[in-house]
Amino acid sequence: MFLPVGQGAFYCERFKCSCSDRTMNFVYDCGVLLRDCGSPDVKLKWLENVIDSVFREGETIDAVFISHLHEDHISGLRHLARRCSIRKIYLPSLDQESRLLMLLNYVTKNLKSTNCNNDGMDDLTGQVLASDDLSGNLQRQLNADAQVIPVREHGDSNEGAKGLELRGSGLFKENVEGLFSDWKYKLFCIKDDNAVRKVRTDLLAVARKYLDGKVDGDFPEVVAELVRRVCNHDNTHRQDIVDEICKVYQDTIGGAHFNTHSLVVYSGCDNSNGALNVKMCCPLFVTCLPNGCINLPPYRSPYCFPYSSNKVGCLYTGDFNAKDYWSDLHDSNCKKEWNTIGCVQIPHHGSNGSYHDDFLEMEAWHVISAGLGNKYKHPSLGVLERYYNGKKPFPIVVTQEPRSIAGWHIYPKKHG
Ligand SMILES: [Zn+2]
Ligand SMILES: [Zn+2]
After folding, report:
1. Rounded CA separation 77/71 (Å)
2. What is the DSSP string of 229-267?
3. What pLDDT was estimated at residue 314?
4. How many CB atoms lie within 10 A of CB 280?
5. What ligand has the least distance to the C-alpha of 261?
6. What is the number of alpha carbons within 13 Å of residue 312 lying toward its C-beta?
7. What are the tens digits of pLDDT across the range 186-195?
8. Helices and strands in the chain, H and E counts
9. How far is the CA of 348 from the centre of ligand 1 (A)?
10. Nearest ligand, measured from the Cα of 256
11. How far is the CA of 319 from the centre of ligand 2 (A)?
């Protein structure tokens, strides 16, 4: 289910077990952008209402997968952890450099949008990124018993380098018979080295200007010093440094958000034993254009649309940079599963900078999460034009409009 929270992401999967009353729940991201347009409190309340409508008080969530630590992907986690009992939380492990670059991006973006009043260090993102112990920080912040498991980046020579594959008892606490017995989750994360390279030179130039020669240390130390300077209220050049750093991120990576790692999750089964019944439910097709979002009558779907398919897997991409790392996604990590993907989240709210043309060739439902009236103009017109020019159906855009919710119900074919 792709839930209607606006500029953010909140997706959940629920397995009903034939052998007991217990359902198994999996969540991918749980957040909405708070400091966009409108009141942060209202948006958080809205997100919390959506969480409450999906999960009962005290319900168990078997695993939460966090794509990355940006507010629009995690701001609902505190409420989710209060309301539900979360067993496991998976998040990308960040090296020190990536953590500090994300933190610097986060605090400067907040300081700029609040005219240097609030650096965001008290928010969940700021608190988790505050030190290298991301798992411990998150556990403390959520005050939950959940086991927090970092997923190492692809290419890391340490254990777990090739991502994680969860299935069977590692995935389900209870036995699941029949249809879902070979269901699995495949998790992997790839460091966006391109993004790091792009900001490095320009950040060093800013550091040279403001850090009085303290740029001889290694790069993470320079970034840490920049974080200290911008978080120091007494720093006279604070506003100038903030402006220049924001400009570096904006100019070099072509956007305000620095996404070095985004955990990609494949959910599905290798062998569905032939076609399954699927019911696709999407009350409203929404398409967003730069001047606003509309629902297009020709594409309006019936409330529920049944069909039969053996492509019942789903690929969740968070804010993954598919443009630069397509082969890691397609060739290295999901080759075997590719033809079972019946639904794909188009990454980074449909931004042009993260889109790869080969998405167009995927015969699957394409879903984008983007808030109505978001200031980033997501989804990008360039992305939508590709669908139009390629004569492909537009992606489903899930917004904060309740009827834009999109869900799939998968069930076995009845015998006889
Ligand atoms: Zn992000
Ligand atoms: Zn995002």
Report:
1. 10
2. HHH-TT-TTHHHHHHHHHHHHHHHHSSS---S---EEEE
3. 96
4. 20
5. 1
6. 28
7. 999 888 888 8
8. 12, 17
9. 7
10. 1
11. 5
Would strands 396-398 and 341-345 be described as parallel, antiparallel, or unpaired? unpaired
- How far away, in angstroms, is 416 Cα from ligand 1 center? 48
CA of 313 to the centre of ligand 2 (A): 22
Closest ligand, as measured to the CA of 9: 2
Q: Which two tokens stand for residue 139?
A: 């556990």
Residue 393 CA to ligand 2 centre (angstroms): 23
Q: What are the chain's domains?
A: 8-93+152-192+259-412 (3.60.15), 95-133+193-258 (no CATH)
Using CA atoms, how far apart are residues 410 and 390, in angstroms rounded to an integer?
29
- Return the closest-CA partner of residue 237 out of 207, 217, 266: 207
Q: Residues 6 or more apart from 315 whose CB is under 8 A from it?
A: 264, 265, 266, 267, 334, 341, 343, 344, 345, 364
Exposed (0-12), middle (13-18) or buried (19+): which is 295, by Cβ within 10 Å?
middle
pLDDT at 416: 40
Report pLDDT digits (tens) over 229-248: 999 888 788 899 999 999 99
pLDDT in tens, 152-196: 876 544 444 456 888 766 666 555 555 567 788 999 988 888 889
d(CA 265, CA 340): 14
pLDDT in tens, 309-365: 889 999 999 999 999 999 999 988 888 899 999 999 999 999 999 999 999 999 999
> What pTM does this model have?
0.92
Could you tell me the distance, in angstroms and rounded to a whole number, from the CA of residue 258 to the centre of ligand 1? 6
